[in-house]
Amino acid sequence: MGVDMIRQANIDDGPAIGKLLTQLGYQTSPEILESMLDDNRQATMVFDSEDELLGLIALIIFPYFPTGEQICRITALVTEKDKRGKGIGSTLIEVARNHAKKHGCQLLEVTTSLSRYQAQEFYAKNGFEKRSLRYTLEV
């Protein structure tokens, strides 16, 4: 029996990452994944269980203009559909929190669709507070 571990994602994880992102409704390409994984502003960690990826979290750190504070944003978080509710997502949140602290961030933030009620409950259960609204405009 293998050991569960959190590790940095790599290009060989591309197909499994693509499969996980499909569960969130996103289609991606190997080229996009490679670009994202090579971007040193971002960190993507995976929950690897016996050589099967059961979850991933992607993060980006950026300065908040008015204050200069560093913010760590979760840009993707997904757990394999049939493995949800087993603590994988919460483990990945803790990894993100530690990553944010390590990089001097004052805040860990996440956005989610208004229609993703289960995700909203999950984030609240993991200590996130609803503090603002996000508006978008396609360009």
TrEMBL record:
Location of the N-acetyltransferase domain: 4-139
Keywords annotated in UniProt: Acyltransferase, Transferase
GO molecular function: acyltransferase activity, transferring groups other than amino-acyl groups
Protein name (record): GNAT family N-acetyltransferase
Organism of derivation: Photobacterium rosenbergii
